[in-house]
Amino acid sequence: MNQPFTLPDGFLWGASTAAHQTEGGNTNSDWWGFEHSGLTQIISEPSGDTCDSYHRWREDMDLLAGLGFTDYRFSVEWARIEPAPGEFSRAALDHYRRMVEGARERGLRPMVTLHHFTNPLWFAQRGGWTADGAVELFVRYAEAVVQALGDGVDHLCTINEPNMLAAMASVRNALMSGALGSDAGVVPQAGMLLPDEATTEALIRAHRAVVDAIKAIVPRLSTGWSIASHVCHPLPGAESVAEEFRRPREDVFLEAARTDDWLGVQAYSRHLIGPDGPLPVPDDAERTLTGWEFYPAALGDALRQTAAAIPGVPLIVTENGIATDDDSRRIAYTTEALAGMAEAMADGVDVRGYFHWTALDNYEWGSFAPTFGLIAVDRKTFARTPKQSAAWLGAIGRDRVLSRALPSPLGA
C-alpha cells in the first residue's frame, strides 16, 4: 500500500470485547469454576471484577464513540441469561437490550456475539457440546436473545472461534492426562492442539441450526461466525504438512460458513511449518506478551487464504491486535496489518469491516498480563485511559483513510 487507501462506504470500523473478559462477576459460568479449580499451571489469577463493564458499559461506549469508532462488537453472556436450565433472566436480557440501544444512541453499530468461549456451569456439567440435546439448548438460548434484542442489531456472530473451542476440549483432555505444559493461559496453548472431533461436529451443527432459527425470527439479520486464522507458512517441501495442520484446525470450520452472510477472520501471528509440523518462533523474532511472533502481515495473509478457501463469502476482520505494554509497537503492528488488509482489498478480497482486539485491557483467559487494549483500565479504580493507539485508530474511523505513515508522538 504505497498510496492512502479510502475505506468503502458502510465499512465497519470498531473494536471488540467479550463478556467474560470485561464484565466481571460471571459466577454462573464454567470459566468462573475453572478459574477457581486450583489449576495454577494455566490459571495464574481469576477474572474477578475484570473491567466491571457490566456496570460501566456506557463509559466504554462513550469513549469508543468519542474516539471516532463507528462499530462495537461485544458478546452476551449465556450464563447470565440462563443461569439454570430453562430459567431465563428477564433482567439480563433487558440489560443487553439496553446495551444495544445505548450503542445505537451513541452512533455505534452493535455486532453481537452469542457465544464467546463461556458456557453456563449447568451446561458444562451435563456434558457440554457433545451431550445429547446440546444443540437444541443453544438454539433455545439464541432465540431468546434475538427476540429480546429486537431489530437493533444488524450483524450477529453465532460462535466466536469454534476451532479454538474444539481445541480447548482437547486442553481439558490433556489436563486430565497431565500432558499440558506449564505456561499460563489456556487459549494460547489450545491453538496447537488437535481439535476434539466430536466437539467440532457439534459446534458446526449448532452454528447451522442457530442461523436457521435466527433467520426464521429476523430474516434480515446478517449472520456468521468467526474463525481463528492459523496463517500457516510452510518451509520448502512442507506444503502438504501445512495443509494437514490446517484442515482440522481451520478448514472444516471455513467449509461450514460457505452459505453464511459473512465470515469473521481473526488473525494475530503465523505458524511456521516444517517437515515434522509446527516450528518454534525464530530466536531472532520479536515476541509479544503472549509469546507469539510479532508478525503484522498475518492479517493480509489470513484474508487472502480465507477468501481462496471459501470464495464469494464476504469477510469481516472481527479480531486483530497485539499484546504489548509498548503502545508504539501496537501502532506499528496495526499500521502494517491494516496495510495488508488494504492491499488484499485492492486485489479484490471482499472485506466489509475491521474490529480491533481489544477495546480494553482485560482478562486474557488466565491472566491480566497480556495487554491487548486500546484503553488502559486501572485494576483498583476501573478508571479508563485511552492510549495513543486508540486516538490514532479512532481517527481513521472518522477520516476513512488508511495510510502506512506512523502518527506523531502524542502531544508532539
Structure description:
With 412 residues, the chain is α/β, with parallel strands linked by helices. The chain has one domain (5-231, 239-270, 289-402): TIM Barrel. It has helices at residues 19-22, 30-35, 53-67, 78-81, 90-105, 121-125, 134-149, 162-177, 186-190, 197-217, 239-255, 298-309, 327-346, 388-399, and strands spanning 5-6, 12-16, 71-75, 109-115, 155-160, 222-228, 232-234, 263-266, 271-274, 277-278, 315-319, 351-357, 375-377, 384-386, 401-402. The strands form four sheets. An eight-stranded parallel beta barrel has the order 2-3-4-5-6-8-11-12, surrounded by eight helices. Helix 3 crosses helix 14, helix 8 (162-177) runs antiparallel to helix 10 (197-217) and helix 8 crosses helix 11 (239-255).
